[in-house]
Specification:
single chain; 206 residues; Jelly Rolls; 3-stranded antiparallel sheet; 3 helices; globular
Length: 206
């Protein structure tokens, strides 16, 4: 049986018609992500119910490994201490699956890290296409003053594993403010991963 073709319209703010799902993450949901816990607690106390970022997605009517899921992510601007607002970040459950991001609006960084600890942040601005290869943990960081809107697309069987970041105490580096720009800084809470965990995620690369 064939799946019927479909289409969506995406506006500059990331709103998508014909979306099959939507998720909104509030500031209070980001507890544990930021190094400055006191600054986060103060922000959550006053603005915890505010939306930090939203995701609208389109899943085909019949999801198979050969299919694609796509959608938009809209991440608001803001800071917690020296760190910028960010998404939770993930690696794919099937870690050998890639993902594509297209920046529509705003400015930011796609922060990427291999399970073994190598990091590679890449700047995003309107028109930038980021290819996240297999095996890379990735999260979006809004380094600008306006919403960061990205369009994403990934294989339907990829899945998302968020706990790989939480177990390590965050990513190996932080994206922090540096004057009018940003820089990478060491994450003092980072615990790294043992050889067994690295092998579980990167075994398919051997």
């Amino acid at each position: 049986m064939f799946v019927s073709p479909s289409s969506c319209l995406v506006d500059a703010g990331g709103a998508m018609t014909s979306a099959t799902g939507a998720k909104r993450t509030r500031i209070r949901d980001l507890a544990g992500l930021f190094a400055d816990e006191a600054a986060f607690a103060a922000l959550a106390a006053t603005s915890g119910d505010a939306i930090a970022y939203g995701v609208d997605e389109f899943r085909p009517e019949r999801v198979t490994p050969q299919e694609l899921i796509f959608g938009t992510s809209t991440l608001g601007p803001g800071r917690v201490g020296d760190e910028f607002f960010m998404t939770r970040g993930h690696i794919h459950v099937k870690s050998d699956r890639p993902e594509i991001y297209f920046c529509q609006e705003g400015r930011g960084v796609m922060h990427m890290e291999l399970p073994s600890g190598e990091t590679q942040p890449m700047e995003m601005h309107p028109g930038t296409v980021i290819h996240v290869p297999p095996f890379w943990i990735h999260r979006s960081v809004n380094t600008g003053t306006a919403p960061l809107v990205t369009f994403f697309c990934y294989p339907a069987d990829a899945g998302q594993d968020y706990e790989i970041i939480a177990r390590a105490g965050g990513m190996k580096t932080l994206i922090v403010a540096d004057g009018d720009g940003w820089r990478e800084a060491p994450n003092p809470r980072y615990r790294g991963r043992d050889a067994g965990e690295i092998a579980r995620y990167m075994g398919a690369a051997a």
